[in-house]
Amino acid sequence: VSDERALSARTEALFRRLVRREAEPALRKLMSHHRPEDVAAVMSHMTWAEQRRLYAMIEDRDYKADLLSHLTEDSIVAITQEMTEDVVADLLDRMDPDDAADVVSLLPEEVRERVLDEMDEEEAVEELLGYAADTAGGLMSSAFFSMPDVATCGAAVRELQKNSDDLSDVQYCYVVDRERRLVGVTSLRSLIVRPPATPLAQIMTRTPISVGPEVDQEEVARFVARYDLMSIPVCDAEGRILGIVTVDDVVDVIREEAAEDLLAMAGLSDAPDPGENSVIDAVRLRAGWLLATLCGGVIGSEVVNGFSETLGQVAALAGFIPVIMGMGGNVGLQSATLAIRGLATGHVQLGGAMSFITSEVKAGVTIGVLYGTILALFGSVRYPETPLVGVAVGVSILAAMAGASLLGSGIPVALSRMGQDPAVATGPLVTTCIDLASILVYFNVARLLLGL
Amino acid sequence: VSDERALSARTEALFRRLVRREAEPALRKLMSHHRPEDVAAVMSHMTWAEQRRLYAMIEDRDYKADLLSHLTEDSIVAITQEMTEDVVADLLDRMDPDDAADVVSLLPEEVRERVLDEMDEEEAVEELLGYAADTAGGLMSSAFFSMPDVATCGAAVRELQKNSDDLSDVQYCYVVDRERRLVGVTSLRSLIVRPPATPLAQIMTRTPISVGPEVDQEEVARFVARYDLMSIPVCDAEGRILGIVTVDDVVDVIREEAAEDLLAMAGLSDAPDPGENSVIDAVRLRAGWLLATLCGGVIGSEVVNGFSETLGQVAALAGFIPVIMGMGGNVGLQSATLAIRGLATGHVQLGGAMSFITSEVKAGVTIGVLYGTILALFGSVRYPETPLVGVAVGVSILAAMAGASLLGSGIPVALSRMGQDPAVATGPLVTTCIDLASILVYFNVARLLLGL
């Protein structure tokens, strides 16, 4: 079982070596022992040329379609680029409509129309293309199983036996009324266990949880997670079922969103997976955020320089610049992280966000008083000839922490309220503003207290 | 459907108000309209006393058991504290064994034994208690459905009909050989669709993906996500199936792990959900990390103070301290984030981590050269009387970025190799080390170049 469990780094290296050598028979044999999901994982570490070469070697078209649906978006673009429209259309016809729609949405505008024309199952895919990719509509599949509420368990089982091909992974039987509105749900198991003559209306769970097609994918994921669902129905305004979002897609959404939040907090949005990117890509990815840091830093150096006279008189002042900046930055990062996570899990709700922000500021001020006092004492003892330097440091620490906790918790909430991604809030703009404000407070308080 | 979809902030407020007023009949009515998952979400924002009061009002014991299994760990402790052993045992008997084992593991040592003795389904729970909570064994449920490989589809359906109570959410039929080793798997749907006389061996998928009970929950989650599974079997060394981990538990694991990574990166490990914690808790949560930052800052101020003579001669030097620290810190954060995410998704594998670290350092050095040059030019033009200050700044930026990208990418990998959580690597210790090293390089290069 071991080589089935996951690909070792060694297997991956073997794959790449065989592709480079164009060792077709050996590659075919190796692939026949691995699932498309595994081959997709291997391909994500290859160059485009290698990926195309490997893909072209595969003969089984169902395997090709399955593999294509598991590749990264960039790989799909690279591979479909070199195919004729009828080949792409044939592969799409072999996929689930939701996977096919995802691939179609990656094709260049001018090719898309022609590929759809070549397809046999064009309609289902075209319907799905009408929804934004990050909504319930964009995630849903039209491969669901529904029965009228007047039907019996036995009728449902017979219906399933008829439609065996289209419903490969069906988990639930959705029950609809005469107007085709969703009124209940029952597990596949109940259909088997109950006597065949039992009406569905008698065994179904009423008012099942559903979402509208416009609902954001993060919210869909929250429902599926909270109610432990295998799939969630997507209904239109009249309550008619349009499709279902399955839990495996939800798992992908949760992983994506978590990764995006993490990356966005470090100014790394749109980061490709490690291994795919060249040094140039890596530099480009980081350059923007760091350029903002650089500009903030230059402004900061001008601010400090504006106080060069003060610094010349009391050299001890310079030493505390880093600690004031560091404390403010870290408190701001902590508040922002709690806000971003709370907004993601629903624990910080937009309506009740004020109490969250208030408690963050309280915490910031409390720590500010505590550590400000410690630093004030340290500063006064360390530089007994200018004890007021310590006081200035303490006051600035307090101000920096209060401001940082307010901005750190408030900005994500504000962004979220404006429909923006809160995770970008920890970016250099906010950090730089907090830094500059702290330095200004620091030097001005110091000048005031020291009478300079 | 709207109030079924999710709890509005208003409904939550209503719940709390009714609990405070001890309005039992109104609360019972309100609860009858909400699922246990929703009531659990509401309770997570209440005080322990309110939670206990609400829980005591519920009469339906199956509802109580269901609700208990959805509460947070702290709530479970608070609520079970005030119950007699036989009441707890009765609730546990109404849960799935894996949920029951989770609750038992939270009970105080001396109570645990007595509760288990009172239980009817003690054995299944005791077996599960033998596994660490964050492994496949700790996650698995013993409620799975298996059949011998010589059985037919019809026999499997009849078996399902017999065991209808224990297997409420079964998705797959696992097929075992004469030695009870797992040899295949088939969907529930196939059992219905195929003619009853079809042998399972003929329709099953062979060599199904499985994990050992000791496998880490993150790895279990990766398998389930990669292969789009509804559940994954957990097998012993001989290949005999011990239990299954279902996808809803995997969804919880993925959410937990993502939240933990995010929080750990901001020095907020073990953060309770917002809303539950007092200001004291909030301060305590942040205090450690910030204390480390404070200590690092004080050491930094000493280092800067050691160069006070140099600073007194060239005041412009002080202005660049913040930008050098900021650039190093941000590059380090970016490298660490990519490493943590890559290790979590499996894109950075421990065996092939060297190429990742190398590419991070290359990116760090490239940006260091780029931005170091920009800052060197700026510094020379801005302070024409001491142009070498700019050069010192540029060299220090380069050194800080190279060091930060090396430490930022290398430390998570090293931690992971030692079996530690890589997400703690962005902590203040690493940041402080990078900061201090950058400042030392900066002043020493400046002294050398300026001949001070």
Question: Can you summarize this structure?
Answer:
Two copies of one chain form a homodimer. By secondary structure, chain A is mostly helical. Helices cover 65% and strands 6% of the residues of chain A.
State the total count of DSSP E strands of chain A. Answer: 6
| Radius of gyration from the alpha-carbon trace of chain A, in angstroms | 30 Å
**Share of β-strand residues of chain A:** 5-15%
User: What spatial form of chain A do the alpha-carbon principal axes imply?
Assistant: elongated
- What class would the helix/strand composition of chain A place it in? mainly alpha
Q: Identify the most extensive interface between protein chains.
A: A-B, 133 and 131 residues
Oligomer: homodimer
* End-to-end C-alpha gap of chain A: 76 Å
In DSSP terms (H or I, runs of 4 or more residues), the helix count of chain A works out at 24
What integer is the average pLDDT of chain A? 85
Order of helices and strands of chain A: HHHHHHHHHHHHEHEEHHEHEEHHHHHHHH
What's the main sheet of chain A like? Answer: 4 strands, mixed
**Ranges of chain A with pLDDT <50 over ≥5 residues?**
1-5
Q: How would you write the strand order of the largest sheet of chain A? A: 1-2-3-4
